[in-house]
Amino acid sequence: MTHDRPRHARLAALAGLTALLLITILPTSVARGATTIGLPLRASGLQALTQVTNAGDGSNRLFLVEKRGVVRVYQNGAVKAGTFLDLRRLIGDSSGEHGLLGLVFHPQFEINRRLYVYYTRTGGDIVVARLRANASGSWTSRSTLEPMLVIEHSAHSNHNGGAMAFGPDGYLYIGTGDGGGAGDPGRNAQSKTKNLLGKILRINPGGSGAGPYRRYSIPTTNPFRGATAGLDEIWAYGLRNPWRISFDRSTGALFIADVGQSRFEEIDREPPAYAGGRNYGWNVMEGKHCYNASSCSTSGKTLPVAEYGHTGGNCSITGGYVYRGSAYPALAGQYVLADFCSGRFYTMPAEGSSLWMRRDTVLNVTSFGESEDGELYAVTINGRLYQVTATTT
Question: What percent of the chain is helix, strand and coil (3-state, nearest 5)?
């Protein structure tokens, strides 16, 4: 019997707790390498964290996103007093998988002070909105918020997505969940004409004219432009709940970590400068396997470059980044990820497909993020910030 295990299904139950997971043996399909990940604690005492990111403005700040709707700043080894942004009045309910789920800064933030948020509003609908920070970039007012996309999401409370990243092309990529419920009962992920759920979207946030708020435009090279019943934002489809997307800052390849249903977690990778349009298979496929069926058609579907099964406590992938920093050469060119439930950290070569388990932990990692110089950090549901380091034995 399959069951609905939504993205980070233990978010509500684990908030504020230090998980005491029994770490069992490594799945036999995953080899252990000589590199071990280290996780020095950098900050604690925050509320449930869903993201860590930087502004790319030379300030060397890290921005810590609390699910309740608050953004804090970590700088010079400490969390600064006060808040950078407070959206609690707009979000209201941040229980379960609701809340402030994504934050990204415009590549020219130092000049235009633009940033973008992804959250669920009262009732469950998804909102992607833009804001403007003050002249110094030290604070952002809720009053500057302007909705760009509002996606209806009332049938189920889970699978809200929340991933956002600017691509090398300057466009904003947005990952949405399939709308929730076991097995995508609404068949949203496979449809290109029904809604924007279960997709990767691509928009030009500097344009105007698309959508009811007319605060972005559709890139002319979007793969389904003009053929999707007004849903021209779609870049890729067939996703269950992409929990973190990232671009390799060296090559421009796009990595998508898609949370599975009950058996497999998957990693998808698009090559640099790809033209888009891929169908990643859900809900016909779960990872590389037929979902809830003995046979299925893989025609027209792109299978993941890597997957791992629900053994030893694994159950929900947290996607990361390809390490391009300089402090830890042992991680160079490795895509770093974790499993939220088991606490295991894995790596995969940026252009490969073999997963290596690098560390057993008791951490419930909700997100990874890069500093301006490419060093890697991780945040947890119990409000802690860790740096990702590495040693070779």
Answer: 5, 35, 60
- Complete DSSP assignment for 306-373: EEEES-TT---EEEEEE---SS-GGGTTEEEEEETTT--EEEEETT----EEEE--S--EEEEEE-TT
Residue 206 belongs to a domain with what CATH number?
A: 2.120.10.30
Cis-peptide into 283, omega within 30 deg: yes
Task: Dump pLDDT digits (tens) for 187-236.
Answer: 999 999 999 999 999 999 999 999 999 999 999 999 999 998 889 999 99
**pTM higher than the cut 0.90:** yes
Dihedral, CA of residue 46, residue 49, residue 52 and residue 58, to nearest 10 = -30
For the CA atoms of the chain, what is the radius of gyration?
Answer: 19
- Cα–Cα distances in angstroms (integers) from residue 299 to residues 238, 302, 365, in the given order: 13, 9, 35
Question: For residue 213, what are its two tokens?
Answer: 């708020």
CA 68 from chain center: how many Å? Answer: 17
- Joined together, the tokens standing for residue 324 give 């391009």
pLDDT tens digits along 112-128: 999 999 999 998 999 99
Task: Confirm whether 247 is domain-assigned.
Answer: yes
| pLDDT reported for residue 157 | 82
> Could you tell me which residues come within 8 angstroms of residue 147 by beta carbon, excluding any fewer than 6 positions away?
127, 128, 129, 213, 215
Assigned domain for 302 exists: no
* Number of domains, the chain: 1
Instruction: Please answer whether residues 386 and 380 qualify as being in contact, where contact means their C-beta atoms are separated by less than 8 angstroms.
Output: yes
DSSP code at position 25: P
Of residues 123 and 352, more confidently modeled: 352
Domain hosting residue 118, numbered range: 11-276+307-392
pLDDT at 268 over 70: yes
Give the pair of three-digit tokens for residue 300.
Answer: 């027209």
